[in-house]
Protein backbone atom coordinates (compact mmCIF):
# COMPACT_ATOMS: atom_id res chain seq x y z
CA UNK A 1 0.00 0.00 0.00
CA UNK A 2 1.44 3.39 -1.00
CA UNK A 3 2.09 6.00 1.68
CA UNK A 4 -0.21 8.97 2.17
CA UNK A 5 1.52 12.36 2.19
CA UNK A 6 0.53 15.69 3.68
CA UNK A 7 1.64 18.98 2.14
CA UNK A 8 2.78 21.72 4.53
CA UNK A 9 2.86 25.25 3.13
CA UNK A 10 3.92 28.63 4.47
CA UNK A 11 4.02 31.84 2.43
CA UNK A 12 6.12 34.97 2.25
CA UNK A 13 4.02 37.66 0.60
CA UNK A 14 5.68 40.90 -0.53
CA UNK A 15 3.33 43.84 -0.99
CA UNK A 16 4.41 47.10 -2.64
CA UNK A 17 2.81 49.96 -0.72
CA UNK A 18 0.78 52.67 -2.47
CA UNK A 19 2.89 55.63 -1.35
CA UNK A 20 3.66 58.33 -3.93
CA UNK A 21 7.36 58.28 -2.99
CA UNK A 22 9.89 55.63 -2.02
CA UNK A 23 10.62 54.41 1.50
CA UNK A 24 13.86 56.36 2.11
CA UNK A 25 13.87 59.10 -0.58
CA UNK A 26 11.47 61.36 -2.49
CA UNK A 27 11.66 59.51 -5.85
CA UNK A 28 8.38 58.50 -7.50
CA UNK A 29 7.07 54.94 -7.01
CA UNK A 30 4.98 55.09 -10.21
CA UNK A 31 5.00 51.88 -12.22
CA UNK A 32 6.22 51.86 -15.80
CA UNK A 33 8.56 54.87 -16.15
CA UNK A 34 11.51 54.81 -18.57
CA UNK A 35 14.41 52.81 -17.01
CA UNK A 36 16.42 54.63 -14.30
CA UNK A 37 14.32 57.83 -14.39
CA UNK A 38 12.78 57.48 -10.88
CA UNK A 39 16.15 57.47 -9.16
CA UNK A 40 18.45 59.59 -6.98
CA UNK A 41 21.71 59.09 -5.00
CA UNK A 42 19.83 57.40 -2.11
CA UNK A 43 18.00 54.69 -4.06
CA UNK A 44 20.98 54.02 -6.34
CA UNK A 45 23.23 53.49 -3.30
CA UNK A 46 25.69 56.35 -3.86
CA UNK A 47 28.35 56.67 -1.11
CA UNK A 48 27.49 59.23 1.56
CA UNK A 49 23.75 59.38 0.77
CA UNK A 50 21.47 59.00 3.79
CA UNK A 51 18.00 57.42 4.07
CA UNK A 52 15.02 59.32 5.53
CA UNK A 53 12.01 57.19 6.51
CA UNK A 54 8.66 57.84 4.77
CA UNK A 55 6.04 58.15 7.57
CA UNK A 56 3.21 56.92 5.31
CA UNK A 57 5.00 53.56 4.97
CA UNK A 58 4.78 53.09 8.75
CA UNK A 59 1.09 54.09 8.77
CA UNK A 60 0.24 51.54 6.06
CA UNK A 61 2.29 48.82 7.77
CA UNK A 62 0.55 49.46 11.11
CA UNK A 63 -2.87 49.39 9.38
CA UNK A 64 -2.11 46.05 7.68
CA UNK A 65 -0.81 44.68 11.00
CA UNK A 66 -3.96 45.73 12.87
CA UNK A 67 -6.25 44.38 10.12
CA UNK A 68 -4.47 41.01 10.42
CA UNK A 69 -4.90 40.91 14.22
CA UNK A 70 -1.16 41.38 14.87
CA UNK A 71 0.61 42.86 17.89
CA UNK A 72 2.27 46.13 16.85
CA UNK A 73 5.88 46.46 18.03
CA UNK A 74 6.07 49.66 20.08
CA UNK A 75 9.73 50.22 19.29
CA UNK A 76 10.75 48.70 15.97
CA UNK A 77 14.13 49.01 14.25
CA UNK A 78 15.63 48.58 10.80
CA UNK A 79 18.47 46.20 10.00
CA UNK A 80 20.90 45.75 7.12
CA UNK A 81 20.59 42.52 5.18
CA UNK A 82 23.91 42.14 3.39
CA UNK A 83 24.12 40.43 0.02
CA UNK A 84 25.79 41.14 -3.31
CA UNK A 85 23.65 41.19 -6.41
CA UNK A 86 23.56 43.60 -9.38
CA UNK A 87 19.96 44.76 -8.69
CA UNK A 88 20.92 45.67 -5.11
CA UNK A 89 22.82 48.98 -5.50
CA UNK A 90 24.04 49.39 -1.89
CA UNK A 91 25.05 45.69 -1.63
CA UNK A 92 22.66 45.56 1.32
CA UNK A 93 18.92 45.86 1.74
CA UNK A 94 17.37 47.86 4.58
CA UNK A 95 14.89 45.45 6.15
CA UNK A 96 13.75 44.32 9.64
CA UNK A 97 14.86 41.10 11.32
CA UNK A 98 15.12 41.55 15.08
CA UNK A 99 12.23 43.93 15.79
CA UNK A 100 9.71 43.81 12.91
CA UNK A 101 6.74 46.18 12.96
CA UNK A 102 4.08 43.51 13.62
CA UNK A 103 3.95 39.95 15.00
CA UNK A 104 1.67 37.09 16.02
CA UNK A 105 -1.44 37.73 13.95
CA UNK A 106 -3.93 35.66 11.99
CA UNK A 107 -6.52 35.88 9.24
CA UNK A 108 -9.52 33.62 8.88
CA UNK A 109 -10.13 31.86 5.56
CA UNK A 110 -12.81 29.61 4.13
CA UNK A 111 -11.73 26.70 1.93
CA UNK A 112 -13.56 23.50 1.06
CA UNK A 113 -16.55 24.64 3.12
CA UNK A 114 -14.45 24.90 6.31
CA UNK A 115 -13.27 28.00 8.17
CA UNK A 116 -9.67 28.05 9.34
CA UNK A 117 -7.23 30.49 10.97
CA UNK A 118 -3.91 31.02 9.21
CA UNK A 119 -1.38 32.39 11.67
CA UNK A 120 0.94 35.22 10.70
CA UNK A 121 4.41 34.92 12.20
CA UNK A 122 5.44 38.51 11.51
CA UNK A 123 5.36 41.46 9.12
CA UNK A 124 8.26 43.72 8.35
CA UNK A 125 8.96 46.86 6.33
CA UNK A 126 11.76 46.87 3.78
CA UNK A 127 12.91 48.41 0.52
CA UNK A 128 12.52 46.68 -2.83
CA UNK A 129 15.51 45.87 -5.05
CA UNK A 130 15.94 47.01 -8.66
CA UNK A 131 15.07 44.87 -11.65
CA UNK A 132 17.39 42.95 -13.95
CA UNK A 133 16.37 42.80 -17.61
CA UNK A 134 17.99 39.89 -19.45
CA UNK A 135 18.49 40.43 -23.18
CA UNK A 136 19.00 36.97 -24.68
CA UNK A 137 19.60 38.40 -28.16
CA UNK A 138 22.65 40.40 -27.05
CA UNK A 139 23.49 37.98 -24.21
CA UNK A 140 23.55 40.90 -21.76
CA UNK A 141 21.79 41.88 -18.55
CA UNK A 142 20.63 45.45 -17.95
CA UNK A 143 19.54 46.90 -14.62
CA UNK A 144 16.67 49.30 -13.94
CA UNK A 145 16.75 50.96 -10.50
CA UNK A 146 13.25 52.53 -10.72
CA UNK A 147 11.91 49.86 -8.35
CA UNK A 148 14.89 50.11 -5.99
CA UNK A 149 13.68 51.67 -2.73
CA UNK A 150 9.96 51.14 -3.41
CA UNK A 151 8.43 50.36 0.01
CA UNK A 152 7.42 46.79 0.79
CA UNK A 153 5.68 45.02 3.62
CA UNK A 154 6.62 41.35 3.81
CA UNK A 155 3.97 39.16 5.46
CA UNK A 156 5.35 35.85 6.72
CA UNK A 157 2.81 33.16 7.58
CA UNK A 158 3.25 30.10 9.78
CA UNK A 159 3.25 26.75 7.87
CA UNK A 160 -0.51 26.39 8.42
CA UNK A 161 -1.74 25.72 4.88
CA UNK A 162 -2.25 22.20 3.55
CA UNK A 163 -3.45 22.69 -0.04
CA UNK A 164 -3.38 25.03 -3.03
CA UNK A 165 -7.04 25.82 -2.27
CA UNK A 166 -6.15 27.09 1.22
CA UNK A 167 -3.23 29.09 -0.19
CA UNK A 168 -5.48 30.79 -2.76
CA UNK A 169 -8.10 31.58 -0.09
CA UNK A 170 -5.38 33.11 2.14
CA UNK A 171 -3.92 35.19 -0.71
CA UNK A 172 -7.35 36.43 -1.74
CA UNK A 173 -8.12 37.35 1.86
CA UNK A 174 -4.86 39.32 2.16
CA UNK A 175 -5.29 41.00 -1.22
CA UNK A 176 -8.87 42.12 -0.53
CA UNK A 177 -7.96 43.32 2.97
CA UNK A 178 -4.99 45.38 1.74
CA UNK A 179 -6.97 46.82 -1.19
CA UNK A 180 -9.75 47.86 1.21
CA UNK A 181 -7.12 49.64 3.31
CA UNK A 182 -5.87 51.46 0.19
CA UNK A 183 -2.36 50.34 1.20
CA UNK A 184 -1.61 48.69 -2.18
CA UNK A 185 -3.36 47.84 -5.45
CA UNK A 186 -1.92 44.28 -5.10
CA UNK A 187 -1.64 43.80 -8.87
CA UNK A 188 0.25 40.55 -9.26
CA UNK A 189 0.93 41.18 -12.96
CA UNK A 190 2.75 44.45 -12.10
CA UNK A 191 4.65 42.87 -9.22
CA UNK A 192 2.96 44.90 -6.49
CA UNK A 193 2.05 41.61 -4.78
CA UNK A 194 4.61 38.81 -5.02
CA UNK A 195 4.43 35.37 -3.47
CA UNK A 196 7.18 32.98 -2.37
CA UNK A 197 5.96 29.48 -1.46
CA UNK A 198 7.74 27.41 1.21
CA UNK A 199 6.63 23.81 0.80
CA UNK A 200 7.46 20.45 2.31
CA UNK A 201 5.75 17.07 2.41
CA UNK A 202 5.58 14.52 5.22
CA UNK A 203 3.90 11.22 5.82
CA UNK A 204 0.30 11.78 6.94
CA UNK A 205 -0.03 11.50 10.70
CA UNK A 206 3.58 12.45 11.54
CA UNK A 207 4.41 15.65 13.40
CA UNK A 208 7.96 16.23 12.14
CA UNK A 209 8.21 18.68 9.25
CA UNK A 210 9.87 17.59 6.02
CA UNK A 211 12.68 19.48 4.27
CA UNK A 212 11.23 22.57 2.64
CA UNK A 213 11.98 24.30 -0.62
CA UNK A 214 11.17 27.90 -1.49
CA UNK A 215 9.68 28.76 -4.87
CA UNK A 216 9.96 32.22 -6.36
CA UNK A 217 8.72 33.95 -9.52
CA UNK A 218 4.99 33.41 -8.97
CA UNK A 219 2.94 36.24 -10.48
CA UNK A 220 -0.61 34.87 -10.54
CA UNK A 221 -2.85 32.74 -8.33
CA UNK A 222 -2.98 30.13 -11.11
CA UNK A 223 0.84 29.99 -11.20
CA UNK A 224 0.86 29.54 -7.40
CA UNK A 225 -1.59 26.62 -7.70
CA UNK A 226 0.41 24.96 -10.49
CA UNK A 227 3.70 25.47 -8.65
CA UNK A 228 2.32 23.89 -5.45
CA UNK A 229 0.99 20.85 -7.33
CA UNK A 230 4.24 20.49 -9.30
CA UNK A 231 6.58 20.82 -6.29
CA UNK A 232 4.44 18.54 -4.10
CA UNK A 233 4.64 15.84 -6.80
CA UNK A 234 8.40 16.33 -7.26
CA UNK A 235 9.11 15.94 -3.53
CA UNK A 236 6.87 12.86 -3.17
CA UNK A 237 8.62 11.20 -6.12
CA UNK A 238 12.03 11.85 -4.51
CA UNK A 239 10.91 10.35 -1.19
CA UNK A 240 9.30 7.35 -2.91
CA UNK A 241 12.61 6.71 -4.69
CA UNK A 242 14.45 6.79 -1.34
CA UNK A 243 16.16 10.11 -2.16
CA UNK A 244 16.41 13.23 0.00
CA UNK A 245 14.74 16.60 -0.62
CA UNK A 246 17.41 19.33 -0.66
CA UNK A 247 16.64 22.63 1.10
CA UNK A 248 17.00 25.15 -1.71
CA UNK A 249 15.43 28.07 -3.53
CA UNK A 250 13.75 27.04 -6.77
CA UNK A 251 12.44 29.12 -9.65
CA UNK A 252 9.05 28.21 -11.10
CA UNK A 253 8.72 28.46 -14.88
CA UNK A 254 4.98 28.74 -15.48
CA UNK A 255 5.25 28.23 -19.24
CA UNK A 256 7.08 24.91 -18.85
CA UNK A 257 5.21 24.11 -15.60
CA UNK A 258 8.50 23.06 -14.06
CA UNK A 259 10.71 24.36 -11.24
CA UNK A 260 14.49 24.28 -11.24
CA UNK A 261 17.08 24.91 -8.53
CA UNK A 262 18.47 28.46 -8.23
CA UNK A 263 20.64 28.28 -5.11
CA UNK A 264 20.95 26.44 -1.83
CA UNK A 265 18.61 27.98 0.74
CA UNK A 266 20.21 30.70 2.84
CA UNK A 267 19.48 31.22 6.51
CA UNK A 268 19.47 34.52 8.38
CA UNK A 269 23.12 34.16 9.45
CA UNK A 270 24.21 34.01 5.79
CA UNK A 271 23.08 37.62 5.36
CA UNK A 272 25.18 38.96 8.26
CA UNK A 273 22.34 41.15 9.54
CA UNK A 274 23.22 44.08 11.79
CA UNK A 275 21.24 47.13 13.04
CA UNK A 276 20.93 49.87 10.38
CA UNK A 277 23.21 52.67 11.66
CA UNK A 278 21.65 55.46 9.57
CA UNK A 279 18.10 55.17 10.94
CA UNK A 280 16.77 55.77 14.44
CA UNK A 281 14.24 53.33 16.01
CA UNK A 282 10.55 53.98 15.23
CA UNK A 283 8.48 54.46 18.38
CA UNK A 284 4.80 53.66 17.85
CA UNK A 285 2.82 54.82 20.88
CA UNK A 286 -0.78 53.95 21.81
CA UNK A 287 -2.11 57.24 20.47
CA UNK A 288 -0.65 56.58 17.01
CA UNK A 289 -1.92 52.97 16.98
CA UNK A 290 -5.40 54.07 18.14
CA UNK A 291 -5.53 56.74 15.43
CA UNK A 292 -4.69 54.18 12.72
CA UNK A 293 -7.21 51.70 14.19
CA UNK A 294 -9.95 54.37 14.18
CA UNK A 295 -9.29 54.95 10.47
CA UNK A 296 -9.66 51.28 9.46
CA UNK A 297 -12.44 50.79 6.87
CA UNK A 298 -15.40 48.42 6.91
CA UNK A 299 -13.83 45.21 5.57
CA UNK A 300 -15.33 42.68 3.19
CA UNK A 301 -16.75 40.26 5.80
CA UNK A 302 -18.58 43.12 7.54
CA UNK A 303 -19.86 44.47 4.22
CA UNK A 304 -21.20 41.05 3.22
CA UNK A 305 -23.29 40.84 6.39
CA UNK A 306 -24.58 44.40 5.97
CA UNK A 307 -25.43 43.96 2.25
CA UNK A 308 -27.58 40.90 2.92
CA UNK A 309 -29.41 42.74 5.68
CA UNK A 310 -29.68 46.20 4.16
CA UNK A 311 -29.98 45.63 0.39
CA UNK A 312 -31.57 42.18 0.03
CA UNK A 313 -29.39 41.22 -2.95
CA UNK A 314 -28.41 37.56 -3.64
CA UNK A 315 -25.45 36.20 -1.65
CA UNK A 316 -23.56 35.43 -4.87
CA UNK A 317 -23.93 39.04 -6.11
CA UNK A 318 -22.82 40.39 -2.72
CA UNK A 319 -19.73 38.15 -2.76
CA UNK A 320 -18.67 39.25 -6.26
CA UNK A 321 -19.29 42.96 -5.58
CA UNK A 322 -17.48 43.01 -2.21
CA UNK A 323 -14.49 41.07 -3.62
CA UNK A 324 -13.38 44.43 -5.11
CA UNK A 325 -13.38 47.62 -3.08
CA UNK A 326 -13.87 49.62 -6.29
CA UNK A 327 -17.03 47.66 -7.18
CA UNK A 328 -18.33 47.91 -3.61
CA UNK A 329 -17.81 51.70 -3.58
CA UNK A 330 -19.59 52.13 -6.95
CA UNK A 331 -22.46 49.90 -5.80
CA UNK A 332 -22.99 51.74 -2.52
CA UNK A 333 -22.83 55.23 -4.02
CA UNK A 334 -25.11 54.29 -6.96
CA UNK A 335 -27.61 52.78 -4.51
CA UNK A 336 -27.47 55.92 -2.35
CA UNK A 337 -28.22 58.09 -5.40
CA UNK A 338 -30.99 56.02 -7.02
CA UNK A 339 -32.33 53.93 -4.13
CA UNK A 340 -32.44 50.77 -6.25
CA UNK A 341 -29.83 48.29 -4.92
CA UNK A 342 -31.03 45.31 -6.98
CA UNK A 343 -30.80 47.26 -10.24
CA UNK A 344 -27.38 48.70 -9.32
CA UNK A 345 -26.15 45.18 -8.51
CA UNK A 346 -27.57 43.84 -11.77
CA UNK A 347 -25.72 46.43 -13.91
CA UNK A 348 -22.47 45.59 -12.12
CA UNK A 349 -22.93 41.82 -12.20
CA UNK A 350 -23.98 41.52 -15.85
CA UNK A 351 -22.90 44.37 -18.14
CA UNK A 352 -19.94 45.66 -16.13
CA UNK A 353 -18.46 42.18 -15.73
CA UNK A 354 -18.96 41.46 -19.45
CA UNK A 355 -17.23 44.70 -20.51
CA UNK A 356 -14.37 44.19 -18.03
CA UNK A 357 -13.74 40.77 -19.56
CA UNK A 358 -13.96 42.09 -23.14
CA UNK A 359 -11.48 44.89 -22.40
CA UNK A 360 -9.13 42.70 -20.32
CA UNK A 361 -9.60 45.02 -17.32
CA UNK A 362 -9.77 44.61 -13.55
CA UNK A 363 -12.60 46.19 -11.48
CA UNK A 364 -9.97 48.64 -10.14
CA UNK A 365 -9.61 50.04 -13.69
CA UNK A 366 -13.27 51.20 -13.85
CA UNK A 367 -13.51 54.92 -14.66
CA UNK A 368 -17.27 55.58 -14.81
CA UNK A 369 -18.89 57.38 -11.90
CA UNK A 370 -21.80 56.15 -9.76
CA UNK A 371 -23.61 59.38 -10.75
CA UNK A 372 -23.72 58.20 -14.39
CA UNK A 373 -24.93 54.71 -13.48
CA UNK A 374 -27.63 56.07 -11.15
CA UNK A 375 -28.84 58.43 -13.91
CA UNK A 376 -28.98 55.54 -16.42
CA UNK A 377 -31.03 53.44 -13.97
CA UNK A 378 -33.43 56.39 -13.52
CA UNK A 379 -33.85 56.89 -17.31
CA UNK A 380 -34.60 53.18 -17.81
CA UNK A 381 -36.99 53.04 -14.84
CA UNK A 382 -38.98 56.04 -15.99
CA UNK A 383 -39.32 54.47 -19.44
CA UNK A 384 -37.38 57.34 -21.06
CA UNK A 385 -35.24 54.65 -22.73
CA UNK A 386 -35.89 50.95 -23.22
CA UNK A 387 -33.58 48.14 -22.07
CA UNK A 388 -31.83 47.78 -25.46
CA UNK A 389 -30.97 51.48 -25.61
CA UNK A 390 -29.96 51.42 -21.93
CA UNK A 391 -27.33 48.76 -22.67
CA UNK A 392 -26.04 50.72 -25.65
CA UNK A 393 -25.75 53.87 -23.50
CA UNK A 394 -24.06 51.93 -20.68
CA UNK A 395 -21.28 50.85 -23.05
CA UNK A 396 -20.54 54.56 -23.67
CA UNK A 397 -20.74 55.26 -19.91
CA UNK A 398 -18.28 52.43 -19.29
CA UNK A 399 -15.83 53.61 -21.97
CA UNK A 400 -15.96 57.39 -21.50
CA UNK A 401 -18.24 58.13 -18.50
CA UNK A 402 -20.63 60.11 -20.73
CA UNK A 403 -23.64 61.89 -19.23
CA UNK A 404 -26.46 59.39 -20.03
CA UNK A 405 -29.22 62.02 -20.17
CA UNK A 406 -27.26 64.26 -22.56
CA UNK A 407 -26.16 61.30 -24.68
CA UNK A 408 -29.78 60.09 -25.07
CA UNK A 409 -31.05 63.59 -25.96
CA UNK A 410 -28.28 64.37 -28.47
CA UNK A 411 -28.82 61.10 -30.33
CA UNK A 412 -32.61 61.04 -30.15
CA UNK A 413 -32.69 57.71 -28.32
CA UNK A 414 -35.77 58.38 -26.18
CA UNK A 415 -38.44 55.69 -26.25
CA UNK A 416 -41.29 56.43 -28.68
CA UNK A 417 -44.47 56.19 -26.63
CA UNK A 418 -46.67 57.95 -29.18
CA UNK A 419 -49.43 55.38 -29.71
CA UNK A 420 -50.41 56.81 -33.08
CA UNK A 421 -46.88 56.43 -34.52
CA UNK A 422 -46.57 52.94 -33.06
CA UNK A 423 -49.98 51.82 -34.43
CA UNK A 424 -48.86 52.92 -37.86
CA UNK A 425 -45.59 50.95 -37.59
CA UNK A 426 -47.41 47.86 -36.24
CA UNK A 427 -49.97 48.01 -39.04
CA UNK A 428 -47.19 48.07 -41.68
CA UNK A 429 -45.38 45.13 -40.06
CA UNK A 430 -48.61 43.03 -40.06
CA UNK A 431 -49.21 43.97 -43.68
CA UNK A 432 -45.62 43.06 -44.70
CA UNK A 433 -45.59 39.69 -42.92
CA UNK A 434 -48.99 38.07 -43.40
CA UNK A 435 -47.55 34.59 -42.63
CA UNK A 436 -46.41 35.54 -39.10
CA UNK A 437 -49.74 37.31 -38.52
CA UNK A 438 -51.64 34.21 -39.65
CA UNK A 439 -49.43 31.95 -37.51
CA UNK A 440 -50.18 34.04 -34.40
CA UNK A 441 -53.90 34.05 -35.14
CA UNK A 442 -53.63 30.27 -35.55
CA UNK A 443 -52.29 29.94 -31.96
CA UNK A 444 -48.52 30.10 -32.49
CA UNK A 445 -47.40 32.40 -29.65
CA UNK A 446 -43.80 32.49 -30.96
CA UNK A 447 -44.90 34.37 -34.07
CA UNK A 448 -45.66 37.40 -31.90
CA UNK A 449 -41.97 37.66 -30.96
CA UNK A 450 -40.99 37.92 -34.61
CA UNK A 451 -43.52 40.71 -35.20
CA UNK A 452 -42.36 42.59 -32.06
CA UNK A 453 -38.76 42.31 -33.35
CA UNK A 454 -39.73 43.70 -36.77
CA UNK A 455 -41.61 46.62 -35.19
CA UNK A 456 -38.63 47.42 -32.93
CA UNK A 457 -36.37 47.38 -36.00
CA UNK A 458 -38.73 49.72 -37.87
CA UNK A 459 -38.66 52.08 -34.84
CA UNK A 460 -34.81 51.88 -34.72
CA UNK A 461 -35.01 50.15 -31.32
CA UNK A 462 -36.65 53.15 -29.68
CA UNK A 463 -40.12 51.74 -28.99
CA UNK A 464 -41.44 50.37 -25.73
CA UNK A 465 -41.52 46.56 -26.34
CA UNK A 466 -44.41 46.05 -23.89
CA UNK A 467 -46.53 48.66 -25.67
CA UNK A 468 -45.64 47.19 -29.10
CA UNK A 469 -46.67 43.74 -27.86
CA UNK A 470 -50.02 45.04 -26.55
CA UNK A 471 -50.79 46.88 -29.79
CA UNK A 472 -49.93 43.81 -31.90
CA UNK A 473 -52.24 41.61 -29.84
CA UNK A 474 -55.02 44.20 -30.15
CA UNK A 475 -54.64 44.62 -33.90
CA UNK A 476 -54.34 40.89 -34.58
Automatic annotation (TrEMBL):
Keyword Membrane: no
BP terms from Gene Ontology: glutaminyl-tRNAGln biosynthesis via transamidation; translation
Aminoacyl-tRNA synthetase as UniProt keyword: no
Assigned EC number: 6.3.5.-
GO function term, MF aspect, one: glutaminyl-tRNA synthase (glutamine-hydrolyzing) activity
Highest taxon in the source lineage: Bacteria
InterPro entries cross-referenced by the UniProt entry: Asn/Gln-tRNA_amidoTrfase_suB/E, Asn/Gln-tRNA_Trfase_suB/E_cat, Asn/Gln_amidotransferase, Asn/Gln_tRNA_amidoTrase-B-like, GatB, GatB_C_1, GatB_Yqey_C_2, Gln-tRNA_amidoTrfase_suB_CS
Record domain Asn/Gln amidotransferase: where: 329-476
Enzyme class: ligase
Keyword terms of this UniProt record: ATP-binding, Ligase, Nucleotide-binding, Protein biosynthesis
Catalytic activity annotation: L-aspartyl-tRNA(Asn) + L-glutamine + ATP + H2O = L-asparaginyl-tRNA(Asn) + L-glutamate + ADP + phosphate + 2 H(+); L-glutamyl-tRNA(Gln) + L-glutamine + ATP + H2O = L-glutaminyl-tRNA(Gln) + L-glutamate + ADP + phosphate + H(+)
Function: Allows the formation of correctly charged Asn-tRNA(Asn) or Gln-tRNA(Gln) through the transamidation of misacylated Asp-tRNA(Asn) or Glu-tRNA(Gln) in organisms which lack either or both of asparaginyl-tRNA or glutaminyl-tRNA synthetases. The reaction takes place in the presence of glutamine and ATP through an activated phospho-Asp-tRNA(Asn) or phospho-Glu-tRNA(Gln).
Family, per entry: Belongs to the GatB/GatE family. GatB subfamily.
Assembly mode: Heterotrimer of A, B and C subunits.
UniProt-recorded name of the protein: Aspartyl/glutamyl-tRNA(Asn/Gln) amidotransferase subunit B
Source organism: [Clostridium] hylemonae DSM 15053
Amino acid sequence: MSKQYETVIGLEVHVELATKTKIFCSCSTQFGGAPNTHTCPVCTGMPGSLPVLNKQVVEYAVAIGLAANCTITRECKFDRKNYFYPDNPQNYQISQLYLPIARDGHVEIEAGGKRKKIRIHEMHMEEDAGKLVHDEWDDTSLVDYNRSGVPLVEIVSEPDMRSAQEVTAYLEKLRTMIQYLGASDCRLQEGSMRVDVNLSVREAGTEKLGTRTEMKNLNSFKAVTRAIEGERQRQIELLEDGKEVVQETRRWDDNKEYSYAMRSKEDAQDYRYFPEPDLVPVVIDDEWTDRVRAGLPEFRDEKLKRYRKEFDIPQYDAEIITASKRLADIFEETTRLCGKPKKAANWLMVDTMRLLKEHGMEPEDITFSPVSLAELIRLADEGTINSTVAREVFEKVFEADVDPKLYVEERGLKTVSDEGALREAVSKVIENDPKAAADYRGGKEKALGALVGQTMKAMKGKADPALVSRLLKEML
